[in-house]
Design brief:
Helix content: 25-40%
Strand content: 25-35%
Number of strands: 10
Radius of gyration: 17 Å
Strand order of the largest sheet: 6-7-8-3-9-10
CATH topology: Rossmann fold
Structural class: alpha/beta
Bound molecules: adenosine-5'-diphosphate, magnesium ion
CATH superfamily: P-loop containing nucleotide triphosphate hydrolases
Shape: globular
Order of helices and strands: EEEHEEHEHHHHEHEEEHH
Largest sheet: 6 strands, mixed
């Protein structure tokens, strides 16, 4: 399966937010989307998920030999095709336990084998399965947010700044999890607000985004050498 974002334009309250964004992400690869705050990363992911409608351009999912135009499709239908968003800020339910958060995402009690599969990635979560969201650390919340995406059995996961605000030790465990997910053949689109060191050994390739435009596409070493991309993303 592959997601193809084809020249999307997005306006919010009459203001142009995305100005012709094109990118692709397929199963089995980790792709970075890098840009400073306000560049349009979250808007891009939300538009892929069907939460925002593009005013121009479209989004396609290639799957099982056919190409589906999902640019006007409802979010739950896009999710059913195998795409899941792990939102920036995590948004887990604070009053629900770890296991209850997973049940809400699954829409019922997940089968034991699925839960075991997920807890294999997150042994920490298994130990605290009955703890409420509000009592979880930032790292545990991020792991739960990713676990909640995995119960929906996606083929491609959109991770919106998953490393934001995490201690270095936790960053390392989230990175391990992302590598594990990739090795199972899933695709990942991960955003990062400029601290490229945190994702550079994780991604197969990256896009740079600035003011709603893709300004770089290529390998991660290249973006740091690209004078224009550097200036627009890091300001030097
Ligand atoms: N709901 C909204 N209403 C108005 N402006 C918005 C809204 N969402 C995003 N924006 C604007 O769109 C731009 C891109 O935002 P966003 O996609 O969240 O950037 P990023 O995720 O890269 O930080 C920003 O200038 C932001 O202020
Ligand atoms: Mg964002």
């Amino acid at each position: 399966m592959k997601i193809i974002v084809d020249n999307i334009h997005v306006h919010i309250s009459g203001v142009k937010i995305l100005n012709g964004v094109s990118l692709e992400v397929g199963e089995g690869e980790v792709v970075g989307l890098i840009g400073r705050n306000g560049a349009g990363k979250t808007t891009t992911l939300k538009t892929i998920m069907g939460l925002i409608r593009p005013t121009e351009g479209s989004i396609y999912i290639e799957r099982d030999g056919s190409t589906i135009d999902v640019g006007r499709m409802k979010p739950y239908k896009i999710a059913r095709l195998g795409v899941t968003l792990v939102p920036q800020g995590r948004f887990i339910f604070p009053d629900l336990t770890v296991i209850e958060n997973l049940e809400v995402a699954y829409g019922g009690v997940p089968p034991d084998d699925l839960l075991e599969d997920i807890f294999r990635y997150f042994p920490e979560l298994k130990k605290i399965r009955d703890r409420k969201g509000i009592h979880l650390s930032g790292g545990e919340q991020q792991m739960l947010a990713i676990a909640r995406a995995l119960v929906m059995k996606p083929r491609i996961i959109l991770l919106d700044e998953p490393l934001e605000g995490l201690a270095p030790k936790i960053v390392a465990s989230v990175r391990r999890i992302i590598n594990g997910i990739k090795s199972e053949g899933l695709g990942i689109l991960i955003t990062e607000a400029g601290n490229i060191k945190r994702i550079q050994d994780l991604v197969d390739r990256v896009y740079g985004i600035d003011r709603g435009e893709i300004i770089y596409s290529g390998d991660v070493e290249g973006i740091m050498k690209d004078v224009d991309a550097r200036r627009r993303i890091w300001g030097f």
